[in-house]
Amino acid sequence: MVEERYSKWLNHENLAPQYKPVLEAMNAEEKNDAFYTTIEFGTAGMRGLLGPGTNRINIHTIRKATQGYANYINENNGGKAGIAIGYDNRHMSKEFAFDCADLLAKNNIKSYVFESLRPTPELSFAVRHLNCFGGIMITASHNPKEYNGYKLYDDKGCQLIPCLASQVIDKVNAIEDELAIDANCTEEQKKLITVIGKDVDEEYYKNVLSIQLNPEVKKDIKIVFSPEHGTANIPVQEVYKRAGYTCIPVVEQCSPDPDFSNTPTPNPEQAGAYELSLKYAKENQADLILVCDPDADRMGVGVLHNGEYVVLTGNQSGSVEIEYICSQLQKQGKMPENPVMFNTVVTSDLGEKVASDYGVTTEKTLTGFKFIGEKVAKYEKTHEKNYVFGYEESYGSLIKPFVRDKDAPQACLMLAEACAFYKEQGKDLVDVLDSLYDRHGTYEESQVALSLAGEAGAKRIKEILANLRKEAPTQIGGTKVVRSEDYKECVIKEGDTVTELTGFTKSDVLKYYLEDGSWIAVRPSGTEPKCKFYYCIKGASKEDAHNKTVHFQQAMDDLIAK
């Protein structure tokens, strides 16, 4: 099968010419990895390595996805409303985006394409602002430079939820020959493409600035900011300028460089993303470090505390955001009736406890902000509950839902305001976090990702989850498992009692609740060749929580090695 696919690509008359020399230079292992399967168009779209092959992101696999999406759009009469298209700084992102517009035009579908790179949240905003049928975002988020990806949005600016994504997937999978698709549209069809830019920017900035709770706060803080060579550079700096904050950009990381030349990693979940920002912060005695991923939907946070910089986890920064937002809404008499916050099944318990303190209920979703966006849309329609906040443990949050995805420019503005507000009280954001631990218990949250690339890696990930289901642990590291949740089999086990797990789309996730109030979850990544392990460990102190975390991580390593 590999040789057959490889030969078809190598000799196909429609193969984009830049791919032929790459194919000819492939060794056996490279051929196998590029052709052993077809890159999956799943509920999160596509993400993968750039290059020729059925298991790669390239002009042909992008066209196959877009043609399938076009068939779905036309079947649902969405062509006149049109599709908004955005893209990030990665290799081929702009080319893919405008090729998508051409292919949609060939299918008589209107599109609105950004003139240059823009954040993912602004694409989400543009879909609703322009009353589009949906959206396409070309991005690989925080992945390394070798990657790119393709995400689809519905008319609410939300990534396609599974029931909609499955309809598109069927259309994509029905296309047998991706190499036979071209994007050659007529001059008349070209008129269906509209290039957009500053007008949409302006409306997005206005909405971001509207989230301020204390716009007159004394802005006596210094913020070091890095867009990690990505799309956050202009929007965040513009919003800070208009709001009156002093922003010190990490100049070396402001250029839209697809090779991420001046950062060890563009992922704010990894320590390397902060190296240069920390240097800038120390030189300028900055109060706050904010680091965005390349498509500006995630934001990492560093805080000056007792003369040292402390990098917060996404769970910690999310909990601080909740505390600030809820306390100010309550203080100003602006807390809505029936307030609700959303987070995921792998997000720390701390945020939920903070929200509960202010009378805000929490609803859990599966990992993926599309599920939070779906809930936002539901309550906007029914008015049963009113949105206050939504976040994931992976540095993604949403303050106001004029966007239906994670929004780092919003988060950057809100964290700056919180930092300035608490500084007036003689506190920093770590002090605020410590006060939350005093009130609600001390937690250490962490994520360990086991990278398992290629065909063998994919099999190993499936094997890990299968083995955990076959021999479900009754204890982990000597601590009793008091409850387990299986989101694929949709069951809850507590001792000998088995009940149905409802309210979630089936997903390959396992979660174990321990007797000491901690929990551990396991899931394959939907966007990378990784198996992820999430730890929310409760301790009597920070030291105790940390020691227990190390212990439980080792216990899980031992468990999956069996």
Spatial extent as radius of gyration = 23 Å
Give the number of DSSP strands: 23
Q: Which stretches are low in confidence, meaning pLDDT under 50 for 5 or more residues running?
A: none
Strand content: 15-25%
Structural class: alpha/beta
Shape: globular
pLDDT averaged over residues: 96
Helix content: 25-40%
Topology:
Blueprint: H1 2-11, H2 20-24, H3 28-35, E1 46-49, H4 59-75, E2 83-87, H5 93-106, E3 111-114, H6 120-129, E4 134-138, E5 147-153, H7 162-173, H8 187-190, E6 193-196, H9 198-209, E7 222-226, H10 233-243, E8 246-249, H11 275-284, E9 288-292, E10 299-305, E11 308-312, H12 314-331, E12 339-344, H13 349-357, E13 361-365, H14 369-382, E14 386-391, E15 397-398, H15 408-424, H16 429-440, E16 442-451, H17 454-470, E17 475-476, E18 479-486, E19 491-494, E20 497-500, E21 510-514, E22 519-524, E23 530-539, H18 542-561
Helix pairs in contact: 4-5, 4-7, 6-9, 9-10, 10-15, 12-13, 12-16
EC number: 5.4.2.2
Catalytic activity: alpha-D-glucose 1-phosphate = alpha-D-glucose 6-phosphate
Organism: Holdemanella hominis
Question: How does this structure look, described?
Answer:
The protein has about 550 residues and is of the alpha/beta class. It contains 18 helices and 23 strands. Strands 16, 17, 18, 19, 20, 21, 22 and 23 form an eight-stranded antiparallel beta sheet that branches. The protein has a six-stranded mixed beta sheet with strand order 1-5-4-2-3-6, sandwiched between helices. It has a five-stranded mixed beta sheet with strand order 8-7-9-10-11, with helices on both faces. Helix 4 (about 60-75) crosses helix 7 (about 160-175) and helix 6 (about 120-130) crosses helix 9 (about 200-210). The longest helix has 20 residues, at about 540-560. The protein is globular. The mean pLDDT is about 95.
